[in-house]
Structure formats: structure tokens, C-alpha cells
Amino acid sequence: MAPTPRPFTVGVPDSDINELRLRLAKTRLPDQAPDAPWANHFAALEQPEALARDVQHFFRPLRSNF
Q1: Which residue in 28, 38, 48, 63 has the fewest CB atoms around it within 10 Å?
Q2: CA 24 to chain CA centroid, nearest Å
């Protein structure tokens, strides 16, 4: 039988959250290298902007709690 989930909290200082937001805002994504050995093998690496949008979309509801 699976254990019953219990609520928990995570303590992260506001200064760490603010630094993370600044770093994410400054993040630059590389252009796709046409001759990269991983080309056509992992869609997220072929479209990094799409991956970044998906990750941002996933975490957006969580950010509203900060």
C-alpha cells in the first residue's frame, strides 16, 4: 500500500528567489548548431526556445505563490 501524502513546506530565502529570477531573465539560449551530433535525436535540444516556453508554462502557477 502506498503511503499517504503529507503536506510539507520548503523554506527558500526571498534573496535566493530574487537571484534566480534575475538569472532566468538574463538567460540566453543558443542557436541550434546545424551539424551538431545530437541533431534529430532529442526534440528539446532542436527547439530550445520551445522547451524553455514549456518549462516556464509549467512553473508559472507555482511562481504566483511567491
Answers
A1: 28
A2: 9
Sequential DSSP letters for 5-56 = P--------HHHHHHHHHHHHH--PPPPPTT-TTTTT-HHHH-HHHHHHHHH
Grid cell of 12 as nine digits: 527558500
What is the overall mean pLDDT for the chain?
80
Phi-psi region of 14 (alpha: psi -120 to 50; beta: other; left: phi over 0): alpha
Selection from 28, 34, 65 nearest residue 49 by Cα = 28
pLDDT at 54: 85
* Residue closest to 29 by CA, chosen among 56, 8, 3, 2: 56
Q: What is the pTM of this model?
A: 0.40
Helix (H) or strand (E) holding 66: none
